[in-house]
Design brief:
Blueprint lengths: L8 H9 L3 E4 L1 H10 L2 H7 L1 E4 L1 H7 L7 E2 L9 H12 L3 E2 L3 H8 L5 E2 L1 H10 L5 H14 L4 H20 L1
Parallel strand pairs: 1-2, 1-4, 2-3, 4-5
Helix pairs in contact: 1-9, 2-4, 2-8, 7-8, 7-9
């Protein structure tokens, strides 16, 4: 695990239990879109973002709900971070700096790999779909081997919890 960002699999799953909506950043929108599961994610999680992100992401973000935030200074990602704080919303991001800042708060944070696991957890996709989306994400995402390994450990924990029920 990367101690900077990784949460134990049980903690991730506990956060999944309460996850109904989240803010999402540009790179996360693009990753989920290119991996083919953005529409599935949108259908199962209330996704919100800022006008800046919609402008950056283009047509991929067209069905993501716009949220108003008071912050006008800083980068797009910094404004999204403050928007998450203002609205007490989890954030889906690929940005290490933003994730590091979120770790210092009580807000949940995830990357797209964790959102793929979330879709398995809520049974929105089956194992075959997971494998297809994972393979596509693996081709485009710039995750370190540690992040991929953490994603696999969360996936295993989800599978084990499903087998136990």
């Amino acid at each position: 695990m990367n101690p900077k960002f990784d949460k134990p699999p049980r903690e991730v799953i506990a956060q999944f239990k309460h996850l109904t909506k989240a803010l999402i950043d540009t790179s996360s929108i693009i990753y989920a879109h290119k991996a083919g599961f953005l529409n599935v994610l949108q259908a199962n999680l209330g996704l919100f973002t800022t006008a800046d992100v919609i402008a950056e992401a283009g047509t991929e973000a067209q069905n993501i709900e716009l949220i108003h935030c008071d912050s006008e200074s800083g980068s797009v990602d910094e404004r999204l971070f403050y928007c998450a704080l203002q609205n007490n919303l989890p954030l889906i991001s690929e940005d290490k700096k933003i994730l590091a800042k979120l770790k210092q708060t009580n807000l949940p944070y995830f990357n797209v790999l964790m959102m793929l696991n979330f879709l398995v957890y809520i049974e929105a996709i089956d194992q075959d779909q997971y494998s297809r989306y994972y393979a596509l994400l693996k081709k485009i995402a710039w995750y370190s081997p540690k992040i991929w390994a953490h994603g696999k450990s969360v996936h295993r924990a989800i599978e084990e919890s499903m087998e136990a029920t």
